[in-house]
Amino acid sequence: xxxxxxxxxxxxxxxxxxxxxxxxxxxxxxxxxxxxxxxxxxxxxxxxxxxxxxxxxxxxxxxxxxxxxxxxxxxxxxxxxxxxxxxxxxxxxxxxxxxxxxxxxxxxxxxxxxxxxxxxxxxxxxxxxxxxxxxxxxxxxxxxxxxxxxxxxxxxxxxxxxxxxxxxxxxxxxxxxxxxxxxxxxxxxxxxxxxxxxxxxxxxxxxxxxxxxxxxxxxxxxxxxxxxxxxxxxxxxxxxxxxxxxxxxxxxxxxxxxxxxxxxxxxxxxxxxxxxxxxxxxxxxxxxxxxxxxxxxxxxxxxxxxxxxxxxxxxxxxxxxxx
Length: 323
Description:
Number of helices: 12
Helix content: over 70%
Largest sheet: none
Number of strands: 0
Order of helices and strands: HHHHHHHHHHHH
Distance between the termini: 49 Å
Structural class: mainly alpha
Radius of gyration: 20 Å
């Protein structure tokens, strides 16, 4: 007997509710003319640097995927195109459903089994969490007087759990694991079936990383990736006319990462972005209306970047296919 309400339906419904709720709240709290005036007065120099840094984010992200796939994918340009398209889908679609686009795009363009592509994506995500967990203690120490005890305790718990999981995977992957990843086209009808496939894919992915001795290279690429993301946020804030230190921008990352783990994301990341940025600026005693204005304007800029780069990926993908 099928459940009346599936998990996917509920998360999508909540994502729609979050999107509508945030849009209504922003319209009630902010003057639309003021938003467009701020955008019109953005500093072109900093905005250009923000775009360059965002392009570098996609470059390093593609480089990391190429490291993970190895000889399975030889075309960097083709992989860059897929990464751009995936980035746009992941940003625009609700409830984290955009994550599903990556294995589908990789399988279609390069013939890599979907489960293999999904495994590599999961491994990349886990490296993201490990790097964030390594940086968090530094951020907590630097801003310990400004952060609430709840935030500190939850951040420490997140780091400790991530360390434990990472160590376990590294130890397990050092042992002999099958290099074959079974690719089943059969749909997953239960939550347990989905969890088992995700778990198997994660173990297979780490086995490949261990066999190819890619740990340190992936760590270096992931650190570079998050530094560029931090730099992008920094340039966007400067472009909007606000002064903030680049180290302070790490607080935004601190608040954003836990939100990205929740599979309830509004359309075009509406809600998650605003909540993370407003919470981060509240740490530095910014007024609520100013924090919200920064969050909304930065969201508009990022949305334009994502769509432009995503469409460039579509165009490059078409050109690559015609060759």
